[in-house]
Specification:
A seven-stranded antiparallel beta sheet has the order 4-3-5-2-11-10-12. The chain is elongated and about 70 Å long. The chain is an alpha+beta fold. Helix content is 29%, strand content 24%. Strand 16 and strand 17 form a beta hairpin. The protein has 19 helices and 25 strands.
Amino acid sequence: MMNALPDFAGDRPREECGICGIFGHPEASNLAYLALYALQHRGQEAAGIAASTGTEVRLHKAQGQVADIFTRDVLEALPGMLSIGHVRYSTTGGSHVRNASPFLGRCGDGCSVAVAHNGNLVNTPEIRSTLESQGVELGGTTDSECMMHAIRLAEGKDFGERVVNGLKPMKGAFSLTLMSEDTLVAVRDPSGFRPLALGKLKNGAWAVASETCAFDLIEAKYVRDVEPGEVLVINKAGLASYRPFEPARAAMCIFEFIYFSRPDSLIFGHSVQAIRKELGRQLAWEAPARADVVVPVPDSALVAALGYADFSKIPYEAGLIRNHYVGRTFIEPSQHIRDFGTKIKLNPVRAAIEGKRVVLVDDSIVRGTTLRKITKMIRDAGAKEIHVRISSPPHKWPCFYGIDFPTREELIAATHSREEIRKFLNVESLEYISVEGLLKAVRNVKAGFCLACFDGRYPVDFEQAPTKGALEAAPSAKVAGRKG
C-alpha cells in the first residue's frame, strides 16, 4: 500500500515555497532550474518556471520535485533571457497543480504577467471577492493566483507601476518575483516577513532568490537583500529601486533562522549557520544538563547541537542517522512494524548512545508525536537518561504569514504544561530556549522579528486569515487569535 511521507516530516513546521528570478542570461530557465534545485527544501509538492523569448512568456509547472519535472526537453522549450521560478508547499489552497506557481495571465493591453509568491496574504477572501465581482473566474484556491489577477487588471504606465498598483490592497506576507515579456520585478512586503536576496552573475545578469544558497549554485555574487517594502524593476534600462508602500513595522520571520533556511545561506543579510550555532550556545547557557553526549535530531538541529556541545563541553555525537533516500511515498511492509514511518527516516547509533546520558537537541516541538517516537528509539538503543533541549521557545500560536503550523489545538505547547510534555516524551528533563535568549542569539540582526508563533502577537492585523485549505472549506470563516 502506498502511504504519505513519513510522519517525521508531517510533524515539522513547513515553509510554503521558494522563489527565484533571472534577467539577462541566455540560459535563464536553466539557471532558474538550478536555483530551484538549491531551494527544494522550501517546497516539494510542485514546481514551475516561466520564461520569456522577448515576445512570448512560456510556462511549465507540475506536481513533484524539480529534477523530476524539468527534463532537458522541458527546459529547451523554455528559451529566453528572462525567467522566474517557484517551488511550492501549500499553506493556502490544496495540493493541486492548479494551485502551483508561477501563475500566468494577460493584461488588457496584451502584456503578460507571471507571478511567483512566497508568503501568505491575510485578506485573501476580500481580494477574491473583489476579483469575482469584476468577472474574474479563478481556477484555483490560492492567494498567489489572486495576486496575479489583481496585477493583470491594475492600471499603470509600465509593468512596474502596474505591479505596484495591483499589490497595494494586499495585506500579509509576500516576497515576489514577477515578469512580463521584457521586465523582471522583485518585491518584498513592507514588514519583510519572508526573505528575498539580490545577486549578480559574472556576465552582468541579475538573479533574485529566497536564499543565497541558490546564488552559490549558479555562481552569482550576493549583492544585498531586497529591502522590506522595496520594489526592484530590472529590464534593459538597468535596475531601478522604488519604495511605493507605506512603511510598516519590521517583522522578519525568526523561524528562517531556527529551521527553514539552509545553514549555508545568508538570510536577512546574516549567516544562518552562525546564528543557529549561537542558538545552541545560548540554549546550553540557559538549560545545562549533566550528560555524556549531545545528539542532534537531523538535519535541522545539527548546528544548534554543535553550539550546545561547544558551550557545554559535552562531546557531540551523530547518534541518529537520517536516511536521505526516502521519497515522498514509500511501500509499507504488510507485516506491522511499530513506528515504521519514523524508523525508515531515522536510525539510532547504539555505540554512541548505549549506557550514556544523552542531551537530545531539536529545533522545535509541534505536535510532539514524532519526537516521542525518537526518544523511544534512543531509549531502546540503551540510553541511560534523555534530556531534551529545544532551540526555539514553545510554539503556542499558528502562523498566518506563510508557515504551515497546525491549529492551536494541535500545538502541544498550547494545550499542555512543560511537565506534561516531558512525561509525554518520557524523558528526564525538557527545556526550551527563552524568547529573550532567542533574541540575544540574533542580536546582530538590526531589524524587528515576527514572534507570533511564540507570543500570539500578530504584526499585521486581520479579520479573516486563510490557512491551508481554508478557502476550499470555509471561505468566510473567522479566525480567532490575539492581535497587536
